[in-house]
Amino acid sequence: MFALLALLQMSSPSSSASSKHLTAIFLVARSELPDPNFGDSVVLVMNDLGPAPVGIIINRPTRVPLSSLFPDLKSLARLHEKLYFGGPVEMDSVWFLFRAAKQPKDAVPAFDGVYLSASRDLLMQLLARDKPMEGLRVFLGHSGWAPGQLESEIARGDWALGQANPEAIFSSKSDHPWPSSQDAGPST
Questions:
Q1: Does a cis peptide bond (omega within 30 degrees of 0) precede residue 179?
Q2: Contact 95, 56 (CB under 8 A)
Q3: Domain presence at residue 175
Q4: What is the C-alpha to C-alpha distance for residues 84 and 95, in angstroms, rounded to an integer?
Q5: Mean pLDDT of the region 14-32
Q6: What pTM was estimated for this model as a whole?
Q7: Average pLDDT over residues 47-76
Q8: Model confidence at 174, in pLDDT bands (50, 70, 90)?
Q9: pLDDT band at residue 173, thresholds of 50, 70 and 90?
């Protein structure tokens, strides 16, 4: 997780005058996608975070309560919030997307006032707010592709492209919880 945070910090637009502008899109998987990690998934994909696209599956709540990550934060137990499956890469890492008026330290912009981070300190600050889950979603793992892989999958018709928007991430609960009894994948 710390290596990932270092990569995110190095890729931050403020770290280099020549950095490219970050862009983000939604990928919507075709329902017949053979990979159970991605079937019926909506993935927020960000470019310019590394040598290949990085993404977070936004519509796969797990059965794991968020409070299990932080058992000392008693205020989380009453919220009944779940951790989300961000993807099959680095399943022991915790990522989060959140809304903010300006870019905090240890976060990179995803799009339109939405930021991405893996900083435990920043997550603890957000969870200490009066309304900790407002504009916040927490994920286990992330998604990634080798250079050229995602482009090939899009050309094959595995993914439909959509415009990223904050409401799709923060304003609704998933209609497709994961894992379900028919899904194969990491059990949580």
A1: yes
A2: yes
A3: no
A4: 10
A5: 64
A6: 0.79
A7: 84
A8: low
A9: low
- Residue 64, domain member (yes or no): yes
Inter-CA distances, 170 with 19, 91, 173, Å: 28, 22, 8
Strands 136-144 and 82-85: parallel
**β-pair partners for 140:** 85, 94
Range of the domain at 129: 2-15+22-170
Q: Chain-wide mean pLDDT for the chain?
A: 79
Cα–Cα distance, 75 to 127 (Å, whole number)? 9
Q: What is the total count of domains within the chain?
A: 1
The one-letter amino acid at 63: R
Query: Which residues is 32 bridged to in the sheet?
Result: none
The one-character DSSP state at 87 is: -
Spatial neighbors of 77 by CB under 8 A, at least 6 apart, are: 65, 67
The CATH number of the domain holding residue 47 is: 3.40.1740.10
Provide the 10 A C-beta neighbour count for residue 177. Answer: 16
